[in-house]
Write a structure and sequence with these properties.
553 residues; mainly beta; Immunoglobulin-like; 5 domains; six-stranded mixed sheet; 1 helix; 45 strands; elongated
C-alpha cells in the first residue's frame, strides 16, 4: 500500500512538472515609424498580430525547458521569411518572462540602432509589501543615450542615474506616494519632462511597477515621431499606460490687424496645435509641458509646417502658470500705420481676487493709438487705466460690477464711449484688448477700433457695448441709501432681505463689510470723495455711488 502511494505521488508530481508552463510577454517600444506595428512568431506560429508601438501582449503560455525561436516581423506579414529580428531562447522554469523590442533603422532620425529583442531580467509579477512599490525602469528612448530620473517633491534626489539606452535598472523599493519626476539628459542635465509620478493615485501599493521611457526627447529632428513618455506596463494586453506630464496653460489671442494674418496657425514646437485662428478670436487654454523650454510659433493660416513660423517666443513654465499670448502688429511693411509683428506675454487668472468684484487687465493693441487712457465717469469717476502705450499690458484692476460709463482716450481726445453692463460678471477675471484702428481709411473702414474681451473658454472676442449718448446710471429700486452725499453715516432700506453690505473705494478695495440689517454705517473716518456701496439682497446686488463730503472726518 505504501509503495502504491509512493508511485502515485511520483506520478502526480511528474505530471505537474510536465504540464508546467512559462508565460511570455512582449512589448513594442520601437519609435521608428517602420515598426509602428509588428508581428511576433514563436516557432513559426504567429502569436502576436499587429502589436502597436507602446503596446504589450497578453501572457503567452509555452512549455518549460524548451528551446524556442522567436521572429519579429513588420506588419503585415505572411511568414517569417522577411523577419526584422530573430532570437533563440530556452524557456527554463521561470514563470513569467518579458521581452522588449526596440530599433531605429529608417532615415531621418538623429540616431540609429539595430533592432533588438532584450529581456527584462528577474521579472516580477507582483510583491506583497503594502505601502511600497517595487519599480524597475528601462531606457527605450530613441534619441537619448543616457538619462537620469530626479524626484523633486518628496525625496529631492536622483532615483535613477546614468541609465543607458536599452538598459534596465534593478528593482528598487519606493514608498507608494505621489511624486514629481524630472526626466533629464545625463550628459547635459537638461530637463526633458516633468511628470506626475502618482503611484498612490494609481493604487500601486504592494505591486511591481515596470516603467518604460519611450519616444523621442526631440521629435522635431526625428521625423516628428512620438514624444518622450514614461509608461507603465499594464497587467493585461493593450497599450502602455502613460504618466501624465505636468502642465501649465496658455491662451493665444489673434489681434493682428494685418489682412494677411486674418487667420493664423499656432505651433508648439514642431506640432500644429491651432489651425486658422481668426482675427479677434482666442484659443481656449492649451496645456504645455512644465520645466521644459517650449517654442510657441505663429504662422499665417496658409502654413504647412513650423518652418513657416513668422514670430515665436520661448517659454519655460511651472505647473501653476496660466499665460496669455496676444499677437499684435503686422507682417506687411507697406501698411499704414505699420507696427511689426510681436507676441505679448502676460500672466492671467480665471477668477477675481475679490469674489464680489471683477478683475480687468487692459492691453493696448491699437497700432495708431500711441497712448491710451480709460476713464470711468458713472459709478466711480476715476481713471481706471492711464498712459498705456502701444503694446503695453496693465496689471489687474478690481472693478465694481454694474453698468459702467467708460471713455477711451487717446492723448486728450475721446476715441470711443462705452456703457457695458457688468453686473452679472462678479468674480470673473477678464482681459480687455484695445483692438483695431482709430483711422480706418487705409483699410476700407474695416478694423475699426474697439475694446474686446477675451474669454477663458476661447472663441470670438466680445466687444464692449458702445454708446453714442451718455446714458444715466439707473440706481437699483431694491434698496434706498440716504443721506447721499453724506457726512458721517449711511442708512440703507431694502424691500427684500439684506444679506451683506460692502463699501469699497473707487478702485474696488474693500473698506468695510457688515451683515447687520437696517443698521447705520459709520463712514466718519473716510476721506472726502466717491465710494461704492454694494448691497447684497435675496434679489441680487444693488450698487450705489456714495459721495463723502469734506470737513466731516
Amino acid at each position: 500500500m505504501l509503495k502504491l502511494s509512493f508511485f502515485i505521488n511520483v506520478f502526480v508530481l511528474s505530471c505537474l512538472v510536465n504540464s508546467a508552463q512559462v508565460r511570455l510577454r512582449f512589448v513594442n517600444a520601437a519609435p521608428d515609424s517602420a515598426f509602428n506595428a509588428i508581428d511576433i512568431y514563436i516557432d513559426g506560429e504567429l502569436t502576436a498580430d499587429s502589436l502597436a508601438f507602446n503596446s504589450a501582449t497578453k501572457r503567452l503560455s509555452v512549455d518549460t525547458n524548451t528551446s524556442l525561436t522567436i521572429h519579429v516581423c513588420s506588419n503585415p506579414s505572411e511568414d517569417t521569411n522577411s523577419f526584422i529580428y530573430r532570437k533563440e531562447i530556452s524557456t527554463g522554469l521561470k514563470q513569467t518572462r518579458l521581452f522588449i523590442f526596440n530599433g531605429l533603422t529608417s532615415s531621418g532620425y538623429s540616431q540609429n540602432h539595430d533592432p533588438n529583442l532584450f529581456e527584462w531580467p528577474e521579472y516580477l509579477d507582483t510583491i506583497r509589501f503594502e505601502g511600497f512599490t517595487n519599480f524597475s525602469v528601462v531606457n527605450a528612448v530613441g534619441d537619448l543615450r543616457k538619462l537620469d530620473l530626479r524626484e523633486t517633491s518628496n525625496l529631492n534626489g536622483i532615483i535613477v542615474n546614468d541609465l543607458e539606452k536599452n538598459a534596465i535598472t534593478t528593482y528598487d523599493y519606493i514608498e507608494t506616494l505621489n511624486y514629481t519626476l524630472l526626466v533629464q539628459d545625463s550628459s547635459s542635465e537638461i530637463t526633458l519632462r516633468e511628470l506626475n509620478f502618482d503611484l498612490a493615485h494609481r493604487g500601486l501599493s504592494g505591486d511591481a511597477a515596470h516603467l518604460m521611457l519611450t519616444g523621442f526627447s526631440n521629435p522635431a529632428v526625428n521625423n516628428n515621431g512620438p514624444v518622450l513618455q514614461l509608461m507603465l506596463l499594464p497587467d493585461t494586453a493593450g497599450s502602455l499606460i502613460p504618466f501624465d506630464n505636468k502642465t501649465s496653460s496658455i491662451q493665444i489671442v489673434n489681434n493682428s490687424y494685418d489682412p494677411a494674418l486674418q487667420y493664423i496657425d499656432v505651433y508648439i514646437g514642431s506640432r500644429l496645435r491651432v489651425n486658422d485662428l481668426e482675427f479677434r478670436s482666442a484659443t481656449d487654454y492649451l496645456p504645455i509641458g512644465t520645466a521644459v523650454e517650449e517654442t510657441i510659433g505663429i504662422a499665417a493660416g496658409s502654413s504647412t509646417s513650423a518652418m513657416d513660423t513668422l514670430s515665436s517666443v520661448r517659454l519655460t513654465t511651472s505647473s501653476d502658470d496660466q499665460l496669455q499670448l496676444i499677437i499684435n502688429g503686422a507682417i506687411q511693411s507697406n501698411l499704414v500705420p505699420f507696427r511689426p509683428l510681436e507676441i505679448l506675454k502676460t500672466n492671467t487668472r480665471n477668477t477675481s481676487t475679490l469674489g464680489y468684484n471683477i478683475d480687468v487687465k487692459l492691453v493696448n493693441g491699437s497700432p495708431d493709438l500711441p497712448i491710451a487712457d480709460l476713464v470711468e465717469f458713472g459709478l466711480i469717476n476715476e481713471v481706471m487705466f492711464s498712459e498705456l502705450g502701444y503694446g503695453d499690458l496693465s496689471t489687474y484692476e478690481s472693478i465694481i460690477p454694474g453698468t459702467l460709463r467708460l471713455n477711451l482716450l487717446g492723448d486728450t481726445d475721446t476715441v470711443q464711449t462705452y456703457s457695458p453692463d457688468l453686473s452679472s460678471r462678479a468674480g470673473e477675471a477678464q482681459t480687455w484688448v484695445i483692438s483695431g484702428l482709430v483711422d480706418t481709411s487705409n483699410f476700407n473702414n474695416a478694423y475699426k477700433i474697439g475694446i474686446w474681451v477675451a474669454k477663458s473658454e476661447g472663441g470670438s472676442l466680445s466687444e464692449l457695448a458702445q454708446t453714442t449718448s451718455i446714458p444715466e446710471i439707473k440706481q437699483s429700486q431694491t434698496c434706498t441709501v440716504y443721506p447721499n452725499p453724506t457726512s458721517a453715516i449711511i442708512n440703507t432700506k431694502c424691500s427684500s432681505r439684506l444679506e451683506r453690505i460692502i463699501l469699497t473705494d473707487a478702485l474696488g478695495h474693500e473698506l468695510l463689510q457688515s451683515d447687520a440689517a437696517n443698521t447705520p454705517i459709520n463712514i466718519a473716518g473716510l476721506n472726502a470723495g466717491n465710494y461704492i456701496l454694494q448691497i447684497f439682497t435675496g434679489k441680487g446686488i444693488s450698487t450705489h455711488k456714495i459721495s463723502v463730503l469734506a470737513g466731516f472726518r
